[in-house]
Amino acid sequence: MYQKIILASGSPRRRALLSRLGINFQYVTSTIEEKLNPDKDIVDEVIRLATMKAYDVARIYDEAFIIGADTVVVCEGKVLGKPLTKENAVKMLKFLSGKKHQVITGVAVINKNAKFIKQFHDITDVYFKNLNDDLIEWYIENDEPFDKAGAYGIQGMGCLLVEKIEGSYENVVGLPVSKLFDVFKEIGISPYRGL
């Protein structure tokens, strides 16, 4: 059965991850402001934002299955979003240096017409190497940190900052596709004939 799939994200990293599943999809960037409430549980907040992004796109595409996602980096109880300036990025990377942090992604899959909603999250522990000033400066000069939570992208040159991870690599990139695939199976979407 054909189902229309729309990723409510303009992120090229999320698009690349979803493409790996071999499922046809479109993408539409959500206009929702990514603003977290610091007084609320962070897992609840990333799921809330993911759901808002999905419903934002579903206003136009109410017959499709919409995937919304939101990713944050949390270290020592502090939530790190996307750095706005070079100084922001330096500060974040120095803060993460030599420490373990969590990458948390909330995901919502909805279909307004079918009254379907499935929400979940994934958490990956990431351990950073001890970063010296020269490495941080070099990394920031490559402009990689500026559209990524925590000021790094593990799928790019940011992999050089990481000692090890525990959990899903794809979650760190921004979309836990293994868990998403389980939702697809539930709604009868599969790139292979085993379902």
Protein model, in words:
The structure is a single chain. The chain is α/β, with parallel strands linked by helices. The protein has a single domain, classed as Maf protein (Alpha-Beta Complex). Helices cover 31% and strands 25% of the residues. It has six helices and seven strands. Strands 1, 2, 3, 4, 5, 6 and 7 form a seven-stranded mixed beta sheet that branches. Strand 1, helix 1 and strand 2 form a beta-alpha-beta unit. Helix 3 crosses helix 4. The relative contact order is 0.18. The mean pLDDT is 92. InterPro entries: ITPase-like_fam, Maf-like. Pfam families: Maf. Nucleoside triphosphate pyrophosphatase that hydrolyzes dTTP and UTP. May have a dual role in cell division arrest and in preventing the incorporation of modified nucleotides into cellular nucleic acids. This is dTTP/UTP pyrophosphatase. Its cofactor is a divalent metal cation.
What's the short version?
With 195 residues, the protein is an alpha/beta fold.
Mean pLDDT across every amino acid position: 92
Instruction: Please give the share of residues in helix.
Output: 25-40%
CATH fold-level topology: Maf protein
SSE order in H/E notation? EHEHEEHEEHEHH
CATH architecture: Alpha-Beta Complex
Structural domains: how many: 1
Global Rg? 17 Å
How many individual helices? 6
Judged by helices, strands and strand pairing, the structural class is: alpha/beta
CATH class: Alpha Beta
Q: What is the rounded distance between the termini?
A: 11 Å
Give the beta-strand count: 7
Biggest β-sheet strands, sense, barrel = 7 strands, mixed
Portion of residues in beta strands equals 25-35%
Low-confidence segments, given as residue ranges, are: none
Shape: elongated
GO molecular function, one term: dTTP diphosphatase activity
Catalytic activity: dTTP + H2O = dTMP + diphosphate + H(+); UTP + H2O = UMP + diphosphate + H(+); N(7)-methyl-GTP + H2O = N(7)-methyl-GMP + diphosphate + H(+)
EC number: 3.6.1.9
Enzyme class: hydrolase
